[in-house]
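Possible race condition, two jobs.
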Amino acid sequence: MEESKDLGQTVRRGILRTLPLRVLQFLLLFLILCLGFSIISMYTFWFFSVQPIAPVAPSTIVTCVEEADSIESWIRPPSNPMHIMNDTELLWRASFVPQITDYPFERVPKIAFMFLTNGSLPLAPLWERFFEGNERLYSIYIHTLPSYYGDYPSSSVFHKRQIPSQVVELGKISMCDAERRLLANALLDISNEWFILLSESCVPLHNFSIIYRYISRSQHSFMGSFDDPGPYGRGRYDQRMEPEVTLSQWRKGSQWFEVNRKLAINILEDITYYPKFRDFCQPACYVDEHYFPTMLTIQVLQLLENRSLTWTDWSRGGAHPATFGKTDINEELLKRNFEGQFCLYNNQPSSWCYLFARKFSPSALEPLLELASTVLGY
């Protein structure tokens, strides 16, 4: 009996030793199977899920590269003239000039209308009527006080046409900086060929077709540039401008000009005359009346028609031209700009001398709108 008992105990101890080993073997096999299943699952997921998406990535990159390198990215004008470039960067970018004169695309030359103003454009409804139907032939740029935001409706031609601006002081170099800023922003559109500087008090004296034809067919740019021997001309000259500018080269002209693309770039790239006018033409020397007329007369006199396209009434005397309000507006006043005028156009005598007029107050808007269709043609 005791031998049988000892034998039973020995068998049970053997079974107990064998059981954990088998359990460990089973667990190890289970882990191997799980790991193998996991690896197979990951590769299966990668093959069936990721693989079909992979070819899309290269096409996206190629599209971006193609878009950046296409001619369209160079000729398409900015949809919104607001940007983060400073003046130095802007003038550098805007001064790019293609060396091949034949354009590899159908270029429709446009007029850039550049408004220099402190704030709103009170005569905007009149201009809206003037621009209507000519969308492919013009661009608009507005320089205001930096604190002003023109909330024009999306249907307006002035909607989102403000450029990054800075404070302008009357008679100081900041006025010319603003004008150069307008030119530079307009030059970013390679289709802009002619550039007209206007104020918020200007009105067009003819319909768009007449003005476009007059400017596009002219052999000259329109900037007044004359030698005034009096105290408000040569009397403003500072001898420290020599040798770049001599007294005999000193010129005066209206602030309101029209220039072509070539002369606009001349104005931007100038580093010779700008420091002289900045340092030595300060009130009572009004730099905006002397800087561009003098510089362009020295550089490209043969390309200038020595007059402005903007009519201004100085007949009342004083330091500022006449301002016309609601009670001043009549057919006779507007026709005064068409009759009895004489000038040269393409070196030939002409009675068509002015395309714009100023200064008109906000109260003049209503009567101007009433007369626009019968007298002004729009």
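Job #2 (started ~2 s after job #1):
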Amino acid sequence: MGSIDADKKLQVLLVGSGGIGTMVAYALEKGGKAEVAAVLRSNFEAVFDNGFTIHSVDHGEIKDWQPTSILDSIPSVDKESWRAPYDYVIVTTKNVPDIPPSIPDLIAPAITPGHTAIVLIQNGLNIERPFLSAFPTNPILSGITFMGAIESPPGSINHHNHDRSFIGVFDNPTANKEQKACAVAAARRLVDAYSACGPNVDCTYEPNVPYSRWRKLLYNASYNGVAAILGMDTSRMRFTEHIVDELIRPLMREIRATAKAVAGVELEEELIESMITADRYDKFFKPSMLQDVEKGRFIEFENLVGEPLREAERVGVETPTLKVVYGLLKGLQFKARERHLREVVVPRSGEGLRYGCHGKS
């Protein structure tokens, strides 16, 4: 990463200013050590006219707030020569690699090779791989947050769960010693800017990115996917008991076994029980994948369920529950693809299809 003047504010481009992204932008701006340009999509008009209204468990009530600038598209640092290079591009969008265009393609115009650090505040396993390939000279940073924040309606943010965030460095096997040191420095600099917003926000440097990502997968590969399939919040799952005993706990045990076999990551057995009751029961919490299904959106299941499954198959770990959940989620994604993508058309005739012929009794 190129050198940054310590007396100047960090120049940050935020891609994905929904609930989580907006709270990240607010924390950085409030700390006074960064200027954020936020790329907005469906909420651009509402925020342009009235700013964000934020109800925050950490920051209180905020009205008519905007970051330093709001944009309706990804800027090009080459075409806009007057624009200073971005020190960080922070990505907080949903991660749906099976739906084009890819995020690396989207953000490429804003990246200065060898300078811009790319921060993926996204869930899932192996999410860094396409970025390492597309931007081999740039630091690729991991962001994991346990914050709860929802945008509804556009421009209105309900930040209901405290911001606990962890920033670390994805391993880049092709990076030299100097590049790896620069990536660590970039991660620590961002932690410093984020933490400057005040004591209510807990942002720390994460030296063990594989552990933190597999740990969060215990929840996301189980509760997130099962909630989407069943259309059920986590409190109702826990109330039934059998959903936890026959689906959630087995899924978590399969993730634990896979983490150890694939990455040598030892997830403590007691983590499973703490994850099962991680959500406050009285909140009747709907995981993000369920919220996306209810809104008819694409779901981010490939890196949450598909990648752990493929890694397990690669090393010979049996994950029967994960495999069934993955198949069901692929079905939900197909329904969304058929609804949103014109190229997905189910033919009226089954001729030529593997399962299209009418069987003889």
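The chain has twelve helices and twelve strands.
Logs attached separately.
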